[in-house]
Amino acid sequence: MKEISASRTARVGGWSLIASAVGFLAVFTWLAAYFNYPDVLDGAAADVLPTLVGLGAAGRGVWMVYAILPLLLIPAGIGAHAAWGSTTPNATRAALVAAVISAFSMLLGLARWPSVHWELAQAYATATPDGRIVIDSIFRGLNAYLGNFIGEFVGELSLNAFFALTAVALLRSGRRVAGWTGIAVAVIGFAAAFRNVTPVVSLVADANNVVLPIWLIALGVLLIRPNHRAEAI
Fold it and tell me: N or C: which terminus of the chain has fewer CB atoms within 10 Å of its end residue's CB?
């Protein structure tokens, strides 16, 4: 019964990863088409906030979906521990912790758009010139702190720690190709997380945007496959 329960938990984790990848691609594509994302992240309040309000309720809803998508990493971390926890208990427990940290860090970073930024955008429309200067400062500060540092840097470092630790578990369970692939993905992700620090890794960051959803789906499939090594938590 425990093995059956662990197998179901692993499958839930696998489908969570696949759902997060599909959701990421969907919202990223929509925002790229209607909000000039991600280039808009470098814009000033005068350009970005009116455009944000212009997205309307639909755009705000898309940002809300984007913000909660990282929470799917939590069942994914639980699933990885269910699948490979008996062979690598320490690594999979650490992977679960990394997944939780990544989920909430990314949530905090993304949730600023349909919440604080949305309110700033509403206020910006009727603010005085001096008020707009203040709003612009708040806007830039939130982007730097919640966006660049918490959401992107901490969130992505934790995400790739999750990838690296699950890769160790895959190696220990005999899945060498998948394990080494996971380590390679994690290395790319670790380098890409420093894109706000140095432009040297800009090409790596572009590659990471392609590799990330592919690996999320691949890792999800590894958890879903009925012949994977399912162990009790």
Answer: N
